[in-house]
């Protein structure tokens, strides 16, 4: 048995007016709970430190920059890293990253149990649009404020396991899981900020959207025989509802822990990495069963090309 | 609206001793029911004409050959083609194919409404093994009797829709759906023969196996915004149970029709191909959102390569 006690630290809403310090105080409280429950890895959501600002249309880059971090850790998050180190709990969380070269990414990091950042992932699948869209009920401007991630889908060896990351919309794309699956991933941790309403189809209800989120994560887990931990920031951010539904999924595709609220809430599970072995050695033994000679379109072609 | 009334003709067991003619008589009965319910496309299972013979270990190639068809249609299936033509119902079914060159495939065909074969698919993802395995509760010798399909995952334009096929274990592989999704597929029809028991883990129950089958088809449907029709041959074949669970899944990943028995049973649904449009133009608009520069491993590497 190779056990990691994983905590999914679902977070309630961050309002525009909330300071980083106020948000980190809530993250510290979740960290305290995680220690009490024996976690060695705690996962927070996408854009954990701020509101989901891509819903706001901004033209002034100086204003946009206020939502980004140019260093990590920084003054606001140093207490989080310090306490995580004190507790020996590895952490993973998402934030908006501005690089020294002036690039902007939707980023998630992973630390070891000494609070050293050992992995960085930059969101590859940016949903939404880049210009103001008058057809939508509200804006989703991720393609305006971020560049697509440039680091691929790496997998890191830590806590005697192979761990990968993804962010929000990445979880709907089977390529995300498969690229990590091909590196032997055993645990994928991902955060999300997903509106409760489809901005382009209001009749699609919350239940349908929660189903799609679960379907994406459970299938990705099953088809790659890996643990998947999905963590929401949720609730009402300045009048815009985000869905909850944080969950821990086992390598058979079954949900073993699920958040019940739309607020700050810790769910945990003792995840045995060895549970991924059976699937990887039998039905999803890629080496015996995959037929890459027939997969060419997946990497040769971005969009749809219909037959004559 | 572009509607195809699709029938999923689940079939009960075929015993080793059943003749092709006896099986085709049951298929004709299902075809009659499909006409009564207004179907224009009727889908039968994998290896519809015979028992699931890969559970039997054979060394005599002449004996193996008795399970294969060297022509299609042939004497036994001619009545099925004739009546399908009379009714104007397109059909799709699976059979073991021996080619004039002496190749062996696990094949599924698709006809138009005049019973002309317009599409042929050969199963790409062969599960199981090629030599007698003393560790298994029973044998699953698909890799012994079949070669992997050599036709890829084509998509055909018929009945004003884009239709693709897959067979059984193919449905568990996201690559199957994605390669067809990249060709704009709107309806995937697939048959299966899936043992109710995991030959390598007897404690895995039927409910878990049905869940995995559903999870694979619903996620494939959702993530490619396509209809998926999965059709079982099921029930007890000479003491070996096969699971049922035939279903029709809409392009949002919801099951809209589901078989209730483990025998011959027709389920139908009027499938509007235009329901696939919204998903293909928004969240799964591949051209805007896919990032093939990060998918390389999917086609460059068959098996797992773990990081140092």
Defining traits:
homodimer; 308 residues; alpha/beta; Nitrilase/N-carbamoyl-D-aminoacid amidohydrolase; 6-stranded mixed β-sheet; globular
Note down, in words, how this protein is organized:
Chains A, B: Pfam families: CN_hydrolase (PF00795). The structure is a homodimer of 308-residue chains. Chain A has helices at 20-36, 61-65, 78-87, 142-145, 174-181, 206-224, 277-281, 286-289, 297-300, and strands at residues 3-10, 41-43, 90-98, 104-111, 117-122, 155-158, 161-167, 187-192, 227-232, 235-237, 240-242, 247-249, 255-258, 265-272. By secondary structure, chain A is an alpha/beta fold. Chain A has one domain: Nitrilase/N-carbamoyl-D-aminoacid amidohydrolase, CATH 3.60.110.10. Chain A has a 6-stranded mixed sheet with strand order 5-4-3-2-1-14, with helices on one face. A 6-stranded mixed sheet of chain A has the order 6-7-8-9-12-13, with helices on one face. The mean pLDDT of chain A is 98. Chains A and B meet through strand 6, helix 5, helix 6, helix 8 and helix 9 of A and strand 6, helix 5, helix 6, helix 8 and helix 9 of B.
């Amino acid at each position: 048995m190779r056990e990691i006690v994983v905590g999914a630290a679902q977070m309630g809403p961050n309002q525009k007016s909330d300071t980083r310090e106020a948000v980190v105080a809530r993250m510290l409280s979740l960290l305290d709970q995680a220690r009490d429950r024996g976690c060695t890895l705690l996962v927070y959501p996408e854009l954990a430190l701020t509101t989901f600002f891509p819903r706001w249309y901004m033209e002034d880059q100086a204003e946009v920059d206020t939502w980004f971090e140019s260093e990590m850790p920084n003054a606001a998050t140093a207490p989080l890293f310090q306490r995580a180190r004190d507790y020996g709990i590895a952490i993973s969380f998402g934030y908006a990253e501005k690089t020294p070269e002036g690039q902007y990414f939707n980023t998630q990091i992973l630390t070891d149990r000494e609070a050293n950042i050992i992995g960085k992932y930059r969101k590859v699948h940016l949903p939404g649009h880049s210009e103001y869209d008058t057809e939508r009920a509200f804006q989703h401007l991720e393609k305006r404020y971020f560049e697509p991630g440039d680091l691929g889908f790496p997998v890191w060896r830590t806590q005697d396991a192979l761990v990968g990351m993804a962010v929000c919309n990445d979880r709907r794309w089977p390529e995300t899981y498969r690229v990590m699956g091909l590196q032997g991933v055993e645990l994928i941790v991902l955060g999300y900020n997903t509106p409760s309403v489809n901005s382009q189809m209001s009749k699609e209800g919350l239940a349908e959207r929660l189903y799609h989120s679960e379907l994406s994560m459970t299938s990705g887990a099953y088809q790659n025989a890996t643990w998947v931990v999905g963590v929401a920031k949720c609730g009402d951010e300045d009048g815009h509802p985000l869905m909850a539904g944080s969950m821990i999924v086992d390598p058979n595709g079954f949900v073993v822990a699920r958040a019940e609220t739309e607020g700050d809430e810790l769910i945990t599970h003792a995840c045995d990495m060895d549970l991924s072995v059976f699937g990887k050695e039998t039905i999803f033994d890629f080496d015996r069963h995959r037929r890459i000679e027939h997969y060419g379109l997946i990497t040769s072609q971005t969009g749809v090309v219909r037959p004559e």
